[in-house]
User: What shape does this take?
Amino acid sequence: MRCAILADIHGNLAAFEAVLEDVERRGGFDEIWCLGDVVGYGPDPSACVQLLRQHRHICIAGNHDWAAIGNIDTSYFNPYAAAAAHWTAEHLAPEDIDYLRSLPQTVQRDDFTLAHGSPREPIWEYVLSTEVARVNFSYFDTRFCLIGHSHVPVVFALGEAHHCELRQLPDELLLSQERDRLIINCGAVGQPRDGDPRASYAILDTEKLTMDHYRVVYDIAATQDKILKAGLPPRLAHRLSQGW
Ligand code: ZN
Assistant: This one.
């Protein structure tokens, strides 16, 4: 099965559409595996939920999805994220809210565990260091774990003697040849934070066990325009062209 691995769409419809077009150009997909934060920050939360639901997919909950439906207190958010969460809550249709409420915190498929933040703390924890990653390998049973949340593409590998190393996410990852267990972040569709403003995603072939990582140019100005017109914090528009 060919899976489009999409994380952190964040209500950025222009980025989401560009990524779906890119996947189609590359031979299409059977299923989307969405790693949470479909909404929050961006100007099109409802349209993004609806576009996702038009496709065969699985999706897990992210902290911004939970904030938008009142599952978590936004006092834990920075002021810009909190303002966006309140705006998002007011711009979701009742069926969007029901859908976001229905999302599980983790899902296991074949050799893969899916979690937004980390397998230990699926909603909140950031896996940014080998120390945190090493501990998290004890919290899932599959060979591989796919995460989002940090918006930075990266791979953590657990090798012999419980040694954990950080690697760059390559353009082509041959999981079939991997002897290590891996925690993989494919980067963010709707708000990349690694200095590259292009949307980031991957295509996973679950039979061949290959993962191809792609970056996609999208109409950043269109999303920025909508953010400003919606009255969302201007900082959320500016950061998109910088990729942080
Ligand atoms: Zn996010």
About this structure: The helical segments are 13-25, 45-53, 63-68, 79-90, 94-101, 130-136, 220-230, 234-242. The chain has one domain: 2-116+170-179+187-242. Residues 9 and 148 are 10 Å apart (CA to CA).
